[in-house]
Write a structure and sequence with these properties.
The protein has 156 residues and is of the alpha+beta class. It has one domain. 47% of the residues lie in helices and 13% in strands. The chain contains 3 helices and 6 strands. A hairpin with a 6-residue loop joins strand 5 and strand 6. The longest helix has 55 residues. The protein is elongated, with a radius of gyration of 31 Å. The termini are far apart.
Length: 156
Amino acid sequence: MKHQQFGRQQLRHQQSGFTLVELVVVIVILGILAATALPRFINLTSDARISSVNGMAGGLRSAVGVVQARFFATGTNSSPVTMVDGTTVAVATTSGIPTGAAAGIGNALQSIEGFTPDYTTATAVIFQPTSGGNATTCRARYNGTTGAVDVVTTGC
C-alpha cells in the first residue's frame, strides 16, 4: 500500500508547469519576431498610398480613352460629350480629350473617393490622396490639353 502512495506522489510532482527560464526564452523570441515584423507593417501605409495614386492615374488614363472613344463614335465633334449613363463630359472639340475641370475630367471619372482634386490649373489638375501625402510628392496630375497623366510617389 505504501508503495502505491509513493507512485501517486511522484506522479503529482511531475505535473509542474513551465520553468521561469523557458518562459523568458519564449518572451525574448516573441520580442525579436515583433521587432523584425513591425517595420514591415509600418511601411504598408506608404505602399497603400502609392498603390492608390497609381490606381488613380490608371483611372484617369482609362477615362480619357473612354471619353475620346465616345466623342469619335458620336461624330458630332462638339462639347459636352454625353456618356451612355447620361453623364456629360466637357471636352476639347478637336480631340475629344476631357478638359481639366470638374465638368471635364471630374465628370469622366466614376469616383474620386479618397482623393482631393485641385482644378486650379487646367493643364495640371492634381489628384492627391485625402489621407496623406502632398500635391508635390504624392499625386497624380492630369493635363487637360494633352490628356497626359503623370505620377509622383516619392513622398507618399
